[in-house]
Structures are given as structure tokens and as C-alpha cells.
Amino acid sequence: MTVIGGLTPDQQALLSQLLAKADAGGGDLKESLQGVEEPSRQISDALVQPDVENRHAPFPLTDIQMAYWLGRSRTFDLGSVASHGYQEYECPRLDLPRFEAAWQAVIARHDMLRAVVDSNGQMRILPETPLFRIPAEDMSDSPPALREARLDAIRETMAHRVPSPGHWPLLELRVSRLSAERDRIHLSCDAIVADVYSMFLAFDEVGRLYDDPTLSLDGLAFSFRDYVLAIKAQESLPAFVAAERYWLARIDGLSPPPDLPLALTAPSGPSRFVRRTLHLPAPRWLALKRRANALGLTPSLVLLCAYAETLRMWSRNPAFTINLTLFNRLPLHPDIERIMGDFTSTLLLDLGADDAPAESFERRVRRTQDRFWADYEHASFTGVRVLQHLSQKRRAAVSMPIVFTSALGVGDVGRKLDQAGRLLGRPTYGITQTPQVQIDHQVFELDGGLGVNWDVVEGLFAPGVIEAMFAAYRGLLEGLASGEGEGGRDPWSDPRPVQLPMAQRAVRDTLNATAADLGPEGLLHAAVLAQARTTPDRIALIDPERSLSYRTLAAEAEALAGELDARLGPPAGSDELVAVALSKGWRQVVAVLAVLISGRAYMPLDPDLPDARQRTILAEGQPVAVLARGTLAAHASTETACPVLVVEPRPGAALAAHPPAPRSRPRDLAYVIFTSGSTGVPKGVMIEHRAALNTVRDVNARFGIGAEDGVFGLSSLSFDLSVYDLFGPLSCGGRLVLPAPGEARDPEAWAARLTREAVTVWNTVPALWQMLVEHAPRLPSPPRLVLLSGDWIPLDLIPRSRTLFPSSRLVSLGGATEAAIWSVAHPVEEEPGPDWRSVPYGRPLANQRLHVLGPDLSPRPDWVVGDLFIAGDGLARGYWRDPVRTQASFPVHPRSGERLYRTGDLARVRPDGTLEFLGREDQQVKVAGHRIELGEIEAALNRCDGVAGSVAAALGHPPGPRRLAAWIVAADASAPPAVETLRRSLADTLPAYMLPRTIALIDAIPLSQNGKIDRAKLPDIRDTDTETVREVPEGEVETVVAAAVADELGLTAVGATDAFFEIGATSLSIVAIHRVIETKLGRKIPLLALFEHPSARALAQHVEGARGESRLGLADDRAARRKARLGDRRPSRRPTQETAS
């Protein structure tokens, strides 16, 4: 990894330009910019004297070296990897003994090429080492295929090696003889001993010694050890103290890293990196640099901002922090430029959310440049330290895994390779790998042009994401060089220089090409009245109390509509509401039709609602009348001053030859349904006739609903599924079958009614269908069509349904009350594949469109989570008498002009255009810094033996600590699964941070009136049969370790199996804990042991000599079970010559 660092030539040029302007116009700018060099100036005021006598004594690691050392541990995410570079070069045939002798001389000259790190995290220079050997393999006579296979095998071995830092050498070279004239050099070096500048230095010296074996290089009077000790000594100076204050003051507001789409299944084993490269030819790179310099911008920061724009397009969070690699080889001694070592450090650059959407790219670069220089003044307090403090504060390991590395200050890498390593030839392959890094972006000058590498963890990201990002980045660089981006716009002045990839845009356009002619605009009830004249004697409605033909249904509805007119007169306008306060039954259906016939809109008022809720809805809706019966009518009369009409049979009602003249128009309101509102006051969703009719017509046509079908109407009138129950079958000559009073939650009664009335269509939330499947599995003639919507469909419900009812066709539908019942459908032909955690949301219905958009309403790329918006003919007019809320929820897209509905749900688009529904934002929680989808925990629990259902939640409220809890329903209440068994099962499928710390057994999952899971009614976790994870420490070592951890982290108690880094430990606190443990136990324990065995029990077993299967000794705790699945993946080591004690 390389640099924004020191002051590179382009930064110096910018400073000179700005200072010249300041000289002309005043001195304020000069004074403010002089501080840019402050970190290096204060430290280098006095040259450091070498400590030759203690040259081989242990010395501390730098912050970045410590991070590299610890990163090898599998304890950390994206660990089990060394910070390491691998490069291949092709060159003319080497004199191998001379080449080896040159390297031996350089190793003898440079201390850091003889360095090792001991188990306590101290570096030591070995005074002597065995001769460094360079194995050579002659492949010149091998067949080409065999030679390539052998070269691939060498690359595979060397490119991803994880050398033990305690074993010398940390540098490896091999030579492959390709022909009589050509050799290939394979070079692998651990970054803990040398950065890229240092390797250029080694190449230069090896080249000179190879050319002239008699050459004697000048001695070195300064060492990397001297440098590190000098830097550590500066931490008491005012500059360092000021830098520490600067960063600690900002730490609470520091943005997280970019939240990029990850693969659904994380790669197993150690991280492996793959490289993507691009080259901007010299003329284009020169044009980009000239444009940047003309604007007073540094090319490095232009490239950084281009990277940020690309990340922002694919990041779920628009505000994020990037980890910058700095080179700070401070001038502490005349020999500083001639010694090898790792002089890198890091700086965290917070690229906050764009609070000025119209701001141009140029302006954003300028703002970022200002931020960089302000942060750089305080760079002596490194990014590694900031992360340590942040982890300690949040009680969770925090990383910033998106890295930007600029080597533009190095000069032309191509020329440097020519000068410093002539014998190496040209590089033909390279890869770097770094622990806790997801993407390492590297830029450098090569042959006058710009070279770019992205080293990315293989398999970490969702399919196609990195390819699309890299292509977008390439396109942006090309546009910045030419001044012409997408659509002919100049990307420098474009506020959105990165757009959705064209291929993805084409898929979205196809997805939303839903225009369909479903017939002329009409009224929701018109087809029912027409059907009554066409097939008057066909049964329309079956109720346990009475069955109604179409003739009787229409006649009684028209008669009731006349009574409404008699009491109220003709409608005063198109938006009069009539409340329907009736229980489910035939009266409810007659009342709804009567209201629509009268030219008014119906407003459901569920009699089972609490009185206070009914009063609120009546007060908000201000209906002109209420339709009720019996005691409900009497109760309604006391709650409202408007007329209350009683709905009873009207045996004298006769059907007129023609339907009454329509009093409504397609764009008038058909119904207003009041749903829960975030303010505590219900909101009334206004749906017009044309919107609801569009959905009803589409579903009937899509699934072939006709006169032979019967729909079972279980849903409450207050739930918009009832709109289809009523108008779907009745508009095409079908039957509506209603349950008897008291049967709303009786699956055995449902089964009897389904069989008796030959019901063919089921339309409910998934939980009600699941009740039928579980409690009434024997149906002689199950429904041919099962429509499930309104909540998550449990994945295990699909195979169970298929087994019991193979002839039933399952369809998942989705949408919102604000978009006329449904907007999307997905036929569930089979259980979703392993890359799906839920049933696909599907594709839009006719004349409806769905968009997944970011905060600025720009489309999200494939796999990126965004807000789900609905557009098209199904949209509600808005919220009843609430223009402010309507405007907020129904925005007009600023670029397309399309009217949208903001659902409040999250979704993402798969590459084939299928939508994946992710639930509401509150279904995704953050615990210990990890974003967690509660549905994933529930799905894992539901797959466990003995579990019939589950609900997960995060307890506690930020900024306080949060913990995961789960409630389960046992498949067999007399023999519920053991909690420890559940934990073991979960540990096999979920990462440790997603494991519930508490699991509670409940009798049933509470459901709302509409059949959805009602989380508010879950019992308090303290009132249930629960079992928590914490285990009491046993024995001296466990007790001492647990107490030391609790004291350092400020916790009341620590369990024997609590993983240190999951409860807030950081590398800083581990060092303090280590000292306490050694003091209390009176014995030496390697510091590394606390990282490799990070729980009281695991450490005790290690200290007392116990060994489990896992190298980290975690076999007996939760974290261990997750890690143990990976096995012991340490690379086999060849015999070593030197080992650190």
C-alpha cells in the first residue's frame, strides 16, 4: 500500500500557487497554510542520535505494524491474512548465483530485512541469519501447458502466503526459468518489514550489486529502530497532544465506512485478494492533471473524489469514511532516505453526506481538499489510533476497510522500475493483501500515464458489483480527462457524474414496461351491478347467515343507497365519506356497495377496535353517515352526530332493469382506509375508483379468475386485501365466501368451509395460511390459487404447502395500502435458492412501476439497498385532509416528473430485474456496529429442529448498548428444543454478532387484527422462560481474566465464554488487560495469546495447556463454533532458520 503523504510535488505546486496569491493579496492565507507541514516540522526540529549499542534490542511496532500483526488473527473479520505484496517480473536470463549474492548483501545491509516480531508484539533485528537462498526451477523444456500450470501453482502459493512474523525470513524470492533467454522472478514480501518505497530502494541496491559484485555501498548510521523510538518519543509533544484532542473531539461524529453490497454468503477461510487494473494513457492523464491544476486541485484528491463518487453510487450510506494510506518518512537523520522499513501510517477522511445535491464535482473536490489538509495537520495521531478509541467507545471492533492509496508522489513507477531494478524487467503480475481491508485502491504514474489497481477480497461482494463499480470509475476518469461524460455533460460541473450503468438501466426499463390496456376507466362497483343484470340468479355471496344471489345483493345495495339519499340528499361533492361499522358478513358487503352506488366513498370502521380508536377515526374522517346494526348502531349513535342507518335484510327490494346512473367518476374516491400513523394519529389513505379497479382487473386477468371461482374473504374490511376479496370475484361472476362470526382464527372451521363451499382462491397474510397448513392439513379440494401478501412468507412454509397441497399455486404479492392493494407479484413455483433469504418480491403489476432509489431519488444499482417507491395508476390521491403528510409521502421525481409513493420499505434489485423486499428500516438494526437483518435470524431459527416459529428483536436503545433477543414457538409444546441446542445450530449458520444473547419460549406469536406479527405484544423478555448466554467463570485463570476484562471495559461482569472483541475490547485495552493478568497470575503470558484465545475460558485452556481443534482455542465458546467451521487454515511452513523468542 502506498501514499498520500509528505508533500508530493503536485501538493507543493498547489501550495506555491496559493502562497503566491496570498503574497499578492495579504498574508492570512500564507499563515493558515504554513501549518500543513506542522507534523513533520515539529518532530524533525532536532535530529535523532542513533542508538547503535542497542541495535538488536526489541522495540515497539508502529501503529500500522501493530495492526498488520494483529490482523493475521482469525479473531477479526477479514483476518487470517498478512499485509503482504506479491509481484512477478520477466527479465533476461539471470546469473542466479550473482543474483542471490546481491540479495544476501542487501539483507546484511538492511536491518529490517532481518526483522522478526515476537509473541508480545515487539520487533527485533536478528544480528545474524543463515544465507538467504533463492530457489530456481528450470521449466524451459516443459510443455507450455505444464509450464503454465506450474507457474500458476507457484503464484497460488506465494501470492497469498501468511508468513509467521516470528520466523525469518519475511521476504521470499523464487526464479522460474522459462526459456534459454527468459526468467521469471517471483517476489513476496511482508509489509510489516518494508513498504513499497523501501522495496524500490532494495531493487536499486540489488541492481547495482548485481551489475558490479565488487561494489561497496556506504554504511548506514541510522536504523528503523532509531526512527520508531524517536516517533514514539514525540507523543508527549504539544503537536501530538493537539492532534489527539482534534481526533477525539471528532470521534462521535465520524461516519462509518461505505456500506457496499456484500455477497449473501461470506467467503470462508482467509481473505484472498484479486486485482483489477486500468491504464489511462499519457495524453489523457496529462489532460486530467492540467485541468486539475488549472482549478487549483491536486490530482491525488481528484482521483480520491472520483473514487468516492463511485463508492457513493454503490454505498447504502451517502456519508462515509475512507482510509487513506500516508507515507511519512520524516527527516530525522541524513540517512533516512536510505533505510528500509514500513513508514506508512493512515488517516481517516470523513466524506460526509452531500448536503448540497446541486454541487458540482469540482466543488466537492475542493471541499474534500480543504478537509484533507485540515485533517493532515493532525496526522501524527494516526487512523489506527482513532479506530482503537472508536472501538473502545462503541464496545465493538470498528474498521474502515475501504482504502485509498496514491503513489503519485513517488514519480513515474515505470521509470523508477527501470532505474531501481533494471535486472527485474517489467512487472507482469501483482497483488497486495491487507487484513481488515475490503478494497485497496492504488494509483501511480506508469510510463507517463496513470495506473490504477483495485485489490479486492475475492467473493466478498455481491456478484457483478465490483465489475460495475470499476467500469463506472474508469468511465469517470475518462470523462474527467476529456471533459465529456455521460450525455455529453462535463463531469467536472456535473453534480451526479456517476450514473446507473446503462445495462442495468435497460433492465429497469424492461422491468417497468408494464403499460397494459385493461379496459376503459370505470367505477369499482360498476361490474358488480352489471353482473347482477347479466347473471342475476348466480350466487354472489355465501354467508353462514344467508346466501345472496347477484340479484338480491344488487337490489338490497341499491335500496340502501336510496335510503342514504333520502336521509342525506344527493352527495354535496365527490369526497363524502360514509362509515361502515359492521362486522364481517353479508351486511358489510351490501353496505359497501350501497355507499359506492350513492356516489360516496366508504370508510371502514372496525367494531372490534377500542372505543378511543373508533372515536379518533370518526373525528378524523368526519363521515356524513354511519352504516351499522343492532348494538353497534346504538353505540355509533353515541359517538357521532351524523345519521346512523341500520343494515338489515330488505326482502321487498327489487332489482331494476338497469343499473342506477353513476354518480361518481373514475377519479373520485372509492374508499378511505385509516392506517396507523407515526404520530399516533391514524392516517386516512384515499383511493380512487380507477386505481383500485386497475389492480382488480389485472389480478383477475393475470390469474384467470372467473365465474367458477370462489374467494374466501377472511381479511377485515379495514385491511385492503378485503377490497380484492369483495370486488375481485363479484366483478366477474364469482363467489365471495365469508367465515362465520367467531371463525376468524379457527383453521379447522376454515377447512370445513373451504370444502363445503368449493373455495378456489385463498387471499390472506402468510400467517393465516400457515395456520391452515399446520392445523388443518387435510383438504379434499384445496384452493387452486393461494395469494399471500402483507407480511413475510416463511421460507419453510413453501415446501410444506407444496407437500400438502401440490395442486395449489402459490403467489407472493406486495404493495401498500397507498397503492391500491398490490403493486408487485411473484409466482412461487419452488422454494427460493440458497442465494435468497426471502421469497422474491417479484415484478410490477400492469400499469404500475417500482423503483429502488437513494436519498437524492437517483436509482440504486443492482444489489444496493434503497428506499422502495411505487409509481403508476395505483397510487392513492394522498392522505385524508393532510396535505403536509401527502406531500412528504408522494413526492414528484425532480428529474422524471413522475409522481411517486415512498413506501418506507427497503428493497434492492437483483441483476435479472427481480425485486428483493427487505422490510422496513426498523427490521434492520445495528448491534455492536454490525447491521443486522432480524429476518435472517428468524429464518435461521425457523430452520432449527423443533421450532415452529420465531421473532427476533434488538433490545435496548442507542446510544446505550443493544443486545439481540429471540422468541420461539416450539413445534411440540411438551418437548421444546433446548436453548443450548438452538445456539449450536445457529452458530453453524450465523456469525457470532448475530447470535441472540437471550432466547425465550412462548406459546404463540402474537398477531395483529390483520394477521401480521404484532411485535408490540411480545412478552417482556424477563417474563418468559429464558436462558441467557453468559457462563460463570470457573477456576483461578478464568476468574482473573474475566475480572480484568470487566474492570478495563467498565462492565459489571464478563462471562467465561464472552468474546473480548464482541463486548468492546480493542488492541489498546487488551494490552492493559494483559498486564493485569500477568501481575495477578504471577506468570508470563504472550500478548498474542489474548488475541488468539479471546475469551476467559479459551485463554485459560491455553494457559493451562489444553488444546482444542481450533488454533485460536475457541472450541468451547460461541465465537469458537463459528471459527471452528473454518478449520485450521494455517499454511504449512517450510523449515525455518530463525525464530523470535
UniProtKB/TrEMBL annotation:
Keyword annotations of the record: Ligase, Phosphopantetheine, Phosphoprotein
Basic and acidic residues biased stretches: 1110-1130
BP-aspect Gene Ontology terms: amino acid activation for nonribosomal peptide biosynthetic process; secondary metabolite biosynthetic process
InterPro entries per the UniProt record, alphabetical: AA_adenyl_dom (IPR010071), ACP-like_sf (IPR036736), AMP-bd_C (IPR025110), AMP-bd_C_sf (IPR045851), AMP-binding_CS (IPR020845), AMP-dep_synth/lig_dom (IPR000873), CAT-like_dom_sf (IPR023213), Condensation_dom (IPR001242)
Domain Carrier as annotated: residue spans: 1032-1107
Enzymatic class: ligase
Residue ranges crossing the lipid bilayer per the database entry: none
EC identifiers of the protein: 6.3.2.-
Co-factor(s): pantetheine 4'-phosphate
Identification of the protein by name: Phenyloxazoline synthase MbtB
Organism the protein comes from: Methylobacterium bullatum
Gene transcribed to yield this protein: mbtB_2
